[in-house]
Inverse folding.
């Protein structure tokens, strides 16, 4: 295996899933022999990544849609502080903030920032009322929203195009 093939193998391991690597690597360097002349076929792999986020202006799940994600529901039921710390951490804040949440300040701030980041309509008054009357359900909704939105941006649709060039050696 020459230096170019090793370099391409390294690129494939870095940018492609194991199921995609074999078919792409097999096509990168095909060497054909014809009347003792060697012709190398070089295929360049071009990847285009599309990100799709749902900025519809509404929450992706309702306040009482706990059954849509049973893992979040069970975590909120049996270990609510764990759910709070995990949610805040997934949003990018310090995981221990919910432990010092007096008077709903952290909860209201988090809900407001989630709305701003994901383009969800609402107001600070709506956030405070939701948290005041449905505190555990609001936290479950925020957790589901962060999970759904972060999954939409970290699992993009991958489109791969292969460009072929023939080079005579």
């Amino acid at each position: 295996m020459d230096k170019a093939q090793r370099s391409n193998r390294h690129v494939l391991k870095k940018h492609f899933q194991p199921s995609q690597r074999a078919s792409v690597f097999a096509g990168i360097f095909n060497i054909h022999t014809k009347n003792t002349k060697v012709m190398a076929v070089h295929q360049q792999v071009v990847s285009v990544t599309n990100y799709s986020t749902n900025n519809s202006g509404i929450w992706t799940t309702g306040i009482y849609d706990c059954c849509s994600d049973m893992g979040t529901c069970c975590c909120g039921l049996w270990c609510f502080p764990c759910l709070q710390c995990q949610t805040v951490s997934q949003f990018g804040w310090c995981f221990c903030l919910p432990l010092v949440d007096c008077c709903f300040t952290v909860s209201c701030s988090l809900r407001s920032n989630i709305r701003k980041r994901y383009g969800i309509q609402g107001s600070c008054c709506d956030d405070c009322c939701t948290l005041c009357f449905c505190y555990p359900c609001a936290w479950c909704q925020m957790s589901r929203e962060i999970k759904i939105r972060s999954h939409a941006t970290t699992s993009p649709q991958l489109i791969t195009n292969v460009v072929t060039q023939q080079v005579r050696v």
Notes: Helices lie at 3-15, 18-28, 70-78, 80-91, 105-118, 124-133, 135-154.
